[in-house]
Amino acid sequence: MQNTGIEIEPDLDRGVVKKLETLSSLASTYQIPLEKLNQTISRYNSFVEQHQDPEFGKFIRDYAKPLSSPFYGVRLWPKVHYTMGGLKIDVRGRVLGKGDRPIIGLYAAGEVTGGIHGACRLGGCAITECLVFGRIAGREAASHTQVPS
């Protein structure tokens, strides 16, 4: 395997990544039509040899190598990474209900709330929001808690 700096042995050991010697075994393991897989690999390898991908107008660097055995496969599928929206809160972290009235005793903070992102989420930017509103909501909730005597 070309040294990419990526450590895959633990994933091979767990069976998450599979090492396969032929395109035929790769195709059968992952239920990929073999003819299409062969065409795709051949097309990619020709792009590497030409140092360009005319389909997408990409220049391919000299360090790119044609794909050859062994082949490594991993099953991937789409999943939800983030959803926009959430509970509406006020500046004290209280969850708002109908008519924008606070729901007594219900507080929220962080990415479970409607948030401050607007129409586009910027990854990693919610940390401050989580910390600030977590602290505010925690203090607010604690101020309404009765300590047993």
Descriptive account of the structure:
With 149 residues, this protein is of the alpha+beta class. It folds into two domains: 67 residues, Alpha-Beta Complex (Flavocytochrome C3, Chain A, domain 1), CATH 3.90.700.10; 58 residues, no CATH class. It is 32% helix and 14% strand. The strands form three sheets. It has a two-stranded antiparallel ribbon with strand order 1-4. It has a two-stranded antiparallel sheet with strand order 2-3. Strands 5-6 form a two-stranded antiparallel ribbon. The N and C termini lie far apart (67 Å).
Give the percentage of residues in beta strands.
5-15%
CATH fold title of the largest domain: Flavocytochrome C3, Chain A, domain 1
SSE run: HEHHEEEEEH
Largest sheet report: 2 strands, antiparallel
Write down the CATH class of the largest domain. Alpha Beta
Query: Helicity level, as a percent range?
Result: 25-40%
Shape: elongated
Give the CA-CA distance, first to last residue: 67 Å
Q: What is the average of the pLDDT values?
A: 88
From the coordinates shown, what is the CATH architecture of the largest domain?
Alpha-Beta Complex
Radius of gyration: 26 Å
Please give the domain count.
Answer: 2
